[in-house]
């Protein structure tokens, strides 16, 4: 069975690369917490729980093998965030990178935003392949010369050097969030971005670090009346005045910043009535939205809750236009998943380049693709066992009851410690990055 | 491993329980069906387990790196509320069934006995238990865990000492009308999360109350606690941030008068020192999910909650804690119309405020 990949039902996904340690003993700091392609797809950034950012760059396609896409190799690694301690509140602030968002490229340098729970940083990643030599006042090793010993003057010249990629923090946006930041989103105007925590959304200017505007505040006057929190937020890809934010109650609110300075009143409310037959102790948990993503066209948006992926038409608020069951077989296991905390996992989702296919992760290192056009779905696995170069991924199937067929895996055999929370799709090509616990798998379609 | 996702649809006198397993659906009617009763009991135990797990999660969240996760804890409180509703529905159905059938039942799990019709709590030391003798009893009895070290305040009275228990409702209880002839004194070390509870008027003696008192006290008027080490007791209401000071071991006359009149427990005396709730800022709330009120307890020489001593087996009382807010809010308006305002209308407002958030405050007490 072919995999879903857009543009037809004949896409087959092949293993390309795997990044990260092979060791089964996973250090917590190495757990990948976010994955993001840049706008061209040339760069792929990952963040981990240790506060590090690793950027991979795609090699140029080889002239000898024009049909083979370039591999992704490490381009830059830097420590974005460090653990901090808030002495006033006696709170430790984790260094875990919650989100990375690339800025559109304007010059030779690349810029990205990275955030932990409290602080957002703007990083400049630039290349240096030349080194100036021949300073008049400095020695070659950098020591300053005694000015009295300078008898002649010369013009410094650039000499080639080994490529060096530098990452330097250009801006630090701090002290604006009381609660944990869960989202950042760069506006299409390339001048502003938003950051969202559990109860508030702030609007920043990329040049100004000491001030931000609060545009959404759902904190009740009495915290005892708190019923929902913000779980994700994103700017519209084309309309710089529009953004959406999702809530733990399963609602999505679309706001227009032209309407008022404070966007507490939504312009649109997207909500699907709950099916009463599915009511359980954990209904509120599984209805909480963990991710929201606009389509590239801006016409649709996608939400991910614990069991489903939903596609919403921005013109229809009453219900999603498409609903895809990611792992419905887990519905009967909710109590166990609650016990082991898996029910609180926040899965992300992503669109492919032409918005025809959506992808999200699941357990047992499975990830799912849903082809919207052909109404097909496929389950694939990111595993070391199927990591032979250019080996085609075999679709997997979970046995939900009855007799288990060959190559099927039963629900009870699923490894809930192996989860794929973060996935990313190349903006143009059929190249996907799938993050397991501490490994990054790169798959591409078979050419 | 649970395989059912129960849905409760309860109406007066009838409980319809739907259980969905992997392969078939049960539809049960509660009355006159012992097998149904057992299924209900099993689901009630499931609910109890979920509640226990939820409380443990909240407790563990306090020590998690990065601070308390607001989102996760909010979701856990929803699970708690759902489990509580389900548990109360099952228990109510069981009680109603007993009333209808005149039968006595005993919960099989000794540690989780919520209702025991023998009227004798001595068989379950260290456990919360409630004596419920059906129609013959007009008092909702409750016994707190026994603990040594506190002298009997009134020699002829039955004295109980409640250890530190963050979720333990401190109750004045007549264990049994026969056991406590006159006065009853209950000594409480600290129960910061002991919301004011409304008890069913059909069951409850009007003199029953819950308190947060850190010092021995009595609900009887004008009974001096002679061997009280301090002459003053200070009580902090976590829900309304009202600090109440009781002088010389007396309950203020208004206090006794008020809850005698409308069977509810009001808080404290006119000698109040209100804490500005705005003091609880974002950072305070976020700092520990034990908001400033817990720290204020320390400053007021009241033992703070020690969540590690939480007895997760005391599910029944926890149910009462979580339930109290809604019941009291439900009856607040009725009481307001029936009785005159005592100690100002603000008391009722605070009452309603406390009740409506009682279950969330229960979580904060950790």
Quickly list its features.
heterodimer, A: 447 residues, mainly beta, Methylamine Dehydrogenase, Chain H, four-stranded antiparallel sheet, 32 strands, 2% helix, 42% strand, globular, B: 366 residues, alpha+beta, three-stranded antiparallel sheet, three-stranded mixed sheet, 8 helices, 11 strands, 35% helix, 13% strand, disordered N terminus, disordered C terminus
Low-confidence stretches of chain B: 1-32, 105-229, 248-319, 323-356, 358-366
% residues in beta strands of chain A: 35-45%
Give the topology string of chain B: H per helix, E per strand. EEEHHEEEEEEEHEHHHHH
C-alpha end-to-end distance of chain A: 17 Å
Portion in beta strands of chain B = 5-15%
Could you tell me the CATH topology label of chain A.
Methylamine Dehydrogenase, Chain H
Described by strand count, sense and barrel closure, the largest sheet of chain B is:
3 strands, antiparallel
State the shape of chain A. globular
Q: What is the global morphology of chain B?
A: globular
Number of strands of chain A: 32
Poorly predicted regions of chain A are: none
State the helix count of chain B.
8
Domain count of chain A = 1
Question: Using only CA atoms, what is the Rg of chain B?
Answer: 20 Å
Subunit structure (chain A): PP2A consists of a common heterodimeric core enzyme, composed of a 36 kDa catalytic subunit (subunit C) and a 65 kDa constant regulatory subunit (PR65 or subunit A), that associates with a variety of regulatory subunits.
Organism (chain A): Oncorhynchus mykiss
GO cellular component, one term (chain A): protein phosphatase type 2A complex
GO molecular function (chain A): protein phosphatase regulator activity
Q: What does this protein structure show overall?
A:
The complex is a heterodimer of chains A (447) and B (366). With 447 residues, chain A is mainly beta. Chain A has helices at 283-287, 334-339, and strands at 13-19, 32-37, 43-48, 52-58, 72-79, 84-86, 91-93, 99-102, 110-115, 120-133, 157-173, 183-186, 192-196, 200-205, 208-217, 230-235, 242-247, 252-256, 268-270, 291-294, 300-304, 308-313, 322-325, 349-351, 357-361, 366-371, 376-381, 397-399, 408-410, 422-425, 431-435, 440-445. Chain A has one domain: Methylamine Dehydrogenase, Chain H (7 Propeller). In chain A, the strands form nine sheets. A four-stranded antiparallel β-sheet of chain A has the order 1-32-31-30, with no helix packed on it. A four-stranded antiparallel β-sheet of chain A has the order 2-3-4-5, with no helix packed on it. In chain A, strands 8-9-10-11 form a four-stranded antiparallel β-sheet, with no helix packed on it. Chain B is an alpha+beta fold. In chain B, the strands form four sheets. Chain B has a three-stranded antiparallel β-sheet with strand order 1-2-3, covered by helices on one side. Chain B has a three-stranded mixed β-sheet with strand order 6-7-8, with no helix packed on it. Chain B has a three-stranded antiparallel β-sheet with strand order 9-10-11, covered by helices on one side. In chain B, helix 1 packs antiparallel against helix 2 (70-101). The longest helix of chain B is centred in the first third of the chain and has 32 residues, at 70-101. Chains A and B meet through strand 7, helix 1 and helix 2 of A and helix 1, helix 2 and helix 4 of B. Chain A: InterPro entries: PP2A_PR55, PP2A_PR55_CS, WD40/YVTN_repeat-like_dom_sf, WD40_repeat_dom_sf, WD40_rpt. Chain A: Keywords: Repeat, WD repeat. Chain A: Belongs to the phosphatase 2A regulatory subunit B family. Chain A: PP2A consists of a common heterodimeric core enzyme, composed of a 36 kDa catalytic subunit (subunit C) and a 65 kDa constant regulatory subunit (PR65 or subunit A), that associates with a variety of regulatory subunits.
């Amino acid at each position: 069975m072919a995999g879903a990949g857009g543009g037809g039902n004949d896409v087959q996904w092949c293993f390309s690369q795997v990044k990260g340690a092979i060791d089964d003993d996973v250090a917590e700091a190495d757990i990948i917490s976010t994955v993001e392609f840049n706008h061209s797809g040339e760069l792929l950034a990952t963040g981990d729980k240790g506060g590090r950012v690793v950027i991979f760059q795609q090699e140029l396609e080889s002239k000898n093998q024009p049909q083979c896409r370039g591999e992704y190799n490490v381009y830059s690694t830097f420590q974005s965030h460090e653990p901090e301690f808030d002495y006033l509140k006696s709170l430790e602030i984790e260094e875990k990178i919650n989100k990375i968002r690339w800025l559109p490229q304007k010059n030779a340098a690349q810029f990205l935003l990275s955030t932990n729970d409290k602080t957002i940083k703007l990083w400049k990643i630039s290349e240096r392949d030349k080194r100036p030599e021949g300073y008049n006042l400095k020695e070659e090793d950098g020591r300053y010369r005694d000015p009295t010993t300078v008898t002649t003057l010369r013009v410094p010249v650039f000499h080639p050097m080994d490529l060096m990629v530098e990452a330097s923090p250009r801006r630090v946006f701090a002290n604006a969030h009381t609660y944990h930041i869960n989202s950042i989103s760069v506006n299409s105007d390339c001048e502003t971005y938003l950051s969202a925590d559990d109860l508030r959304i702030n609007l920043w200017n990329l040049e100004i670090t000491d001030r931000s505007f609060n545009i959404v505040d759902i904190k009740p006057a009495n915290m005892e009346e708190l019923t929902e929190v913000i779980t994700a937020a994103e700017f519209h890809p084309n309309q710089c005045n529009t953004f959406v934010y999702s809530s733990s109650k399963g609602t999505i609110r679309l706001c227009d910043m032209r309407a008022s300075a404070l966007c507490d009143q939504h312009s649109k409310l997207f909500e699907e009535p709950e099916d009463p037959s599915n009511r359980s102790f954990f209904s509120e948990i599984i209805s909480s939205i963990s991710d929201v993503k606009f389509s590239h066209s801006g016409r649709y948006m996608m939400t991910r809750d614990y069991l489903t992926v939903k596609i919403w038409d921005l013109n229809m608020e009453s219900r999603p236009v498409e609903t895809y069951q990611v792992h419905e077989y887990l519905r009967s296991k909710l109590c166990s998943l609650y016990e082991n905390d898996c029910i609180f996992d926040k899965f992300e989702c992503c669109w492919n380049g032409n918005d025809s296919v959506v992808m999200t992760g699941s357990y047992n290192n499975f990830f799912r693709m849903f082809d919207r056009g052909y109404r097909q779905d496929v389950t694939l696995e990111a595993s070391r066992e199927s990591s032979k170069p250019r080996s085609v991924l075999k679709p997997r199937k979970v046995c939900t009851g009855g007799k288990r067929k060959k190559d099927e895996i039963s629900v009870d055999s699923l490894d809930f410690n192996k989860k794929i929370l973060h996935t990313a799709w190349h903006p143009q090509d059929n190249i996907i990055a799938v993050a397991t616990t501490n490994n990054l798998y790169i798959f591409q379609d078979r050419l | 491993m649970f395989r059912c996702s129960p849905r409760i649809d309860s109406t007066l006198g009838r409980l319809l329980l739907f259980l969905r397993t992997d392969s078939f659906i049960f539809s049960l009617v509660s009355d006159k069906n012992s097998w149904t009763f057992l299924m209900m009991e099993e689901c009630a135990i499931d609910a109890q387990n979920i509640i226990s797990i939820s409380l443990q999660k909240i407790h563990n969240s306090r020590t998690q790196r990065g601070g308390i996760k607001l989102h996760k804890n909010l979701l856990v409180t929803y699970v708690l509320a759902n489990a509580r509703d389900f548990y109360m529905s099952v228990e109510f159905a069981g009680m109603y069934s007993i009333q209808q059938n005149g039968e006595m039942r005993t919960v099989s799990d000794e540690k989780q006995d919520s209702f025991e019709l023998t009227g004798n709590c001595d068989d379950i030391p260290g456990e919360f238990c409630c004596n419920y003798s059906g129609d013959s009893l007009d008092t909702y009895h409750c016994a707190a865990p026994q603990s040594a070290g506190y002298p009997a305040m009134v020699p002829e009275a039955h004295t109980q000492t409640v250890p530190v228990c963050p979720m333990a409702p401190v109750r004045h209880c007549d264990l049994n009308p026969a056991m406590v002839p006159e006065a009853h004194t209950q000594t409480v070390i600290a129960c910061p999360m002991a919301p004011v509870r409304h008890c069913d008027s059909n069951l409850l003696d009007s003199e029953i109350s819950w308190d947060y008192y850190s010092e021995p006290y009595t609900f009887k008027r004008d009974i001096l606690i002679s061997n009280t080490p301090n002459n003053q007791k200070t009580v902090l209401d976590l829900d309304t941030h009202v600090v109440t000071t009781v002088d010389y071991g007396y309950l203020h006359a208004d206090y006794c008068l008020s809850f005698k009149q409308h069977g509810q427990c009001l808080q404290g005396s006119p000698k109040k020192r209100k804490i500005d709730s705005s003091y609880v800022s974002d950072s305070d709330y976020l700092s520990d999910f034990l908001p400033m009120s817990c720290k204020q307890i320390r400053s007021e020489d009241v033992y703070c909650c020690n969540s590690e001593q939480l007895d997760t087996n005391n599910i029944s009382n926890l149910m009462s804690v979580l339930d109290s807010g809604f019941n009291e809010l439900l009856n607040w308006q009725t009481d307001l119309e029936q009785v005159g305002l005592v100690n100002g209308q603000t008391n009722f407002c605070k009452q309603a405020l406390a009740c409506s958030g009682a279950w969330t405050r229960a979580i904060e007490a950790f």
